[in-house]
Amino acid sequence: MLFRSAIALFSLAFILLLSASGREGRALFGRTPRMTVERVPLDLHDPARTRVGALTYLGGIRLRSPERAFGGFSSMRVKGDDFTLLSDGGTFIRFRMGKDWAPRDVQFGDLPDGPRNGWLKADRDSESMTSDPATGQVWVGFEQYNAIWRYDADLIRAERSARPPAMRDWSDNGGPESLVRLHDGSFVVLGETSRPKGSRIGREGLLFPGDPTIPGTKPVRFVYMPPNELYDPSDAVQLPDGRLIVLNRRFSVSGLFTAKLTLIDPRAIRPGAVLRGTEIATLAAPLLHDNYEALAVTREGDDTILWIASDDNQQFWEWSLLLKFRIEFAKR
Q: Cβ(19)–Cβ(39) under 8 Å?
């Protein structure tokens, strides 16, 4: 375990160094999509275990591919049986998957445009994604440039973009990690590591009253408080009842990656408001624990389903996971 932790720490430090320098070349997919999956239990030592906090595990898969560009999944969109996972390098995978957990119609793609020319990975550091269920339009948050881009429903055309002034002072590698279009058409953005002045734990939060890529859309500033200063918000998603689930991630040498899910109410957002989440689940050893960065919510009858995906940083010791949970408190 100590050996694995040492390798993990060295690998993560190397990744962060490349990311900060912006000199890492951007890998692209080949013409033929290649992907395999295998089922995974929630607890490798107790395959019968399904409950964690307010969640019940319904199954999950590990995704693999020999493609160098594969992995790094930082956000996702799920509509029925249609899955889109977007990496932090501007590439994405799409597939259909039913109850048999067998992906079909697998497609690999690349965002049609983004910050700068896209030769470097830093040019396409796509960390968050949200969409309009009515039009299908997709918004993507980019770190490094603290920008938000809007694309068409199929991710084949960029429609507009903006670098909101309220985000310009956010750290290059700790910007819009969480981006959520709310039911009323407003948008919530959470900074990953960007903190308000004088705050040790709080993270920058913005509530845009409308499309943040439209000039003149001025946000309300607020503060999001993760579970403690060691956790960073890595994604958020809205439940049918309007509340938000925030995914908070931590890395340590002893425990590697762990995650806590918290619940906040966006109706409490006011200028200068401080939002503290209520913890609903923790993903740590002996449960599957990895670099969880992506959330999506779907409905199955009366059940609200939470999907969680991980960013493997394209490292051999991390996994690309796609996990499915039922939210017990969200039942009708």
A: no
Kind and range of the H or E element at 125? none
Token digits for 69? 């560009």
CA dihedral 221, 226, 230, 234 (to 10 degrees): -80
Put simply, whether the predicted model's pTM sits higher than 0.90 gets the answer yes
Q: How far is CA 263 from the centre of its chain?
A: 16
Structural tokens at position 205: 């939060």
| Single-letter residue type at 134 | A
Q: What are phi and psi of 162, to 5 degrees?
A: -155, 150
Side-chain-side CA neighbours of residue 238 (13 Å): 22
Rounded distance between C-alpha atoms, residue 248 and residue 275, angstroms? 14
Question: How many angstroms separate the CA atoms of 65 and 312, rounded?
Answer: 12
Residue 273 neighbours by CB under 8 Å, 6+ apart: 222, 223
Nearest CA to 26 out of 314, 290, 283, 246 is that of: 314
Amino acid identity for residue 31 in this structure: R
- What would the DSSP string read from start to end of 278-325? EEEEEE-TTB----EEEEEEEEETTEEEEEEEE--TT-TTS-EEEEEE
pLDDT reported for residue 140: 98
Give the C-alpha separation, 237 to 131, whole Å.
Answer: 11
Beta bridge partners of 63: 37, 320
Angle at 51 between CA 46 and CA 54, to 5 degrees: 160
| Pairing outcome for strands 274-276 and 220-225 | parallel
Question: Residue holding tokens 């969200």?
Answer: 330
pLDDT at residue 12 in the model: 53
- The mean pLDDT values, 10 residues at a time, for the chain of 332 residues are 49 48 78 97 96 98 97 97 97 97 98 93 95 97 97 98 97 95 98 94 97 97 96 98 97 89 98 97 96 98 97 94 94 54
Cis ω for the linkage preceding 271 (within 30 of 0): no
Q: Round to the nearest angstrom and report the end-to-end CA distance of the chain.
A: 43
